[in-house]
Amino acid sequence: MTVSVSHITHIDNLVHIISEGCLWSDAKRIELGLVNQNIGYSHIKQRRLLRPVNVAAGGMIGQYVPFNFCPRSVMLYVIHRGHADFQGGQDRVLHLISDTETISLSNEHCFFTDIHADLDYAEQIDDFSRLSELDIQRIINEKYWQDFKEEKQAEFLAYESVQWHTVKRIGVRSQTVADDVNLLLQSAQHKPVVQVRPEWYY
């Protein structure tokens, strides 16, 4: 079973992702001293650098690149509303779309969780035959998620890096941002399809 997954990042990070040829985990990016426009909660990112992984390559959650099993994630809602660490809104946030099989073929150390990976009681699973246990259609892709916020935040995580060539599509909120992304992609060898998908946003 292969499932579509989505990683959100700010457009300001795209040039570095293309030049590095991959998405780095937070831990690796810090180790390399790379500049990054953070859009998430800094305290959660710090906590994930210390939360252990018991499957895949082990280590800490912060050593893995995170993906959601849907666009329009809970974190994007937080970004849309604004929070202490980022007030820039969602307009220039990109959805980098791939799938579990494509990423796993280039990175053998992957796993997924049934809920938000940062929670103590999240199950860490590296048996991908169990992906069917996630209720992607009725819960994870649901537009209104207040009753199952944790389940909607189930994650797919890849150790240390995800190769740029595994990104198949880039979803954006507006044609203006699509034009900006296409301009940045001009010099890239790998050019994912850029799609204007306002329904992926709040």
TrEMBL record:
Record has Glycoprotein as a keyword: no
Domain of life the protein comes from: Bacteria
Keyword Cytoplasm (UniProt): no
Catalytic activity annotation: a thymidine in DNA + NAD(+) = an N-(ADP-alpha-D-ribosyl)-thymidine in DNA + nicotinamide + H(+)
Keywords: DNA-binding, Glycosyltransferase, Nucleotidyltransferase, Toxin-antitoxin system, Transferase
Record: residues binding NAD(+): H7, I8, T9, R48
Span of domain DarT: 3-202
Active site: R48 (proton acceptor), E155
InterPro entries linked: DarT
A GO term for molecular function: nucleotidyltransferase activity
Family: Belongs to the DarT ADP-ribosyltransferase family.
Official protein name in the record: DarT domain-containing protein
